Amino acid sequence: MLRVPPPWRLAGDGWIFLFTLRPWFLRNGRFLPPELMGDDFEGELGAVMLVDYKRSPVGPYRELLFLAGRNRRWRNHRFSILRIYVSTEASAVSGRENWAIPKVVGDFEVIPQKDGSERVIVMREGLAEVDLTVASVGGPPLPALSFAAPPSWRTIEQYRDGQVYRTRLSGRGIARRGELRDFRTEPTLFPDVNEGKLLAGFRIERFQLKFPAPKVE
Fold first, then answer.
1. How many whole angstroms separate alpha carbon 193 and alpha carbon 198?
2. Could you tell me if residue 2 is inside a domain?
3. How far is residue 167's CA from residue 150's CA, in Å, rounded to a whole number?
């Protein structure tokens, strides 16, 4: 499987759920790379994102990820993707090679519920590693514009072979309130965010996202 080089332009729909976490939360798991084990990484702000990419350079695919950030100052968070599943090998290969994102392939089972919510189960080797239920709760649509966020909030830092890959994202879409109605995980395989406090949830519709080439140091 060959990688598809950046830049990537993607479009789709998804959910974002923001959490505050205890400083010890991530250190008890297997999720931090050695570069983030220093004292300056507190990981007190994290997010779960569930995305359905309708269009990408490697075709449609689904994605579930967890990221957390260094909490140096409000406008200088630096986020790293610590765990991520994607539904296709093409996305996994290109994500790892282009941006050092630690993508692994999982089987996504999507089960629409009678109340309009959506249950998503991510399986690997026959084991349900994550099982979550999400829902849009309506409300007025609001524009979601990347330039409204501080640059560091839309920059991801990934690590590989002693190098830092920094990628600044840009995009736009429509945001509505979203709910995380249930979340279950194997906590050694994906962070159990039930240990944290849910700050907010959003349904992002018809987004367009640009992933440029990273700056490598």
1. 8
2. no
3. 14
For 19, the domain range is: 8-216
The residues, ordered by sequence, that sit 6+ positions from 131 with a Cβ below 8 Å of its Cβ are 119, 120, 121, 122, 182, 183, 184, 185
Q: Are 159 and 146 in contact (CB under 8 A)?
A: no
Could you tell me how far CA 190 lies from the centroid of its own chain?
12
Could you give the 3-state DSSP secondary structure of residue 214? coil
Number of domains composing the chain = 1
- Single pTM value for the model: 0.93
Is 47 within 8 Å of 67 (Cβ atoms)? yes
Q: What count of other Cβ atoms lies within 10 Å of the Cβ of residue 24?
A: 10
CA distances to 31, 43, 113, 128 from 196, rounded to whole Å, are 16, 11, 26, 21
Q: What is the CATH number of the domain that holds 150?
A: 2.40.400.10
Over residues 11-59, the pLDDT tens digits come to: 999 999 999 988 778 876 678 887 777 656 667 889 999 999 999 999 9
Interacting residues of 9 by C-beta distance below 8 A, sequence separation 6+ = 56, 57, 208, 209, 210, 211
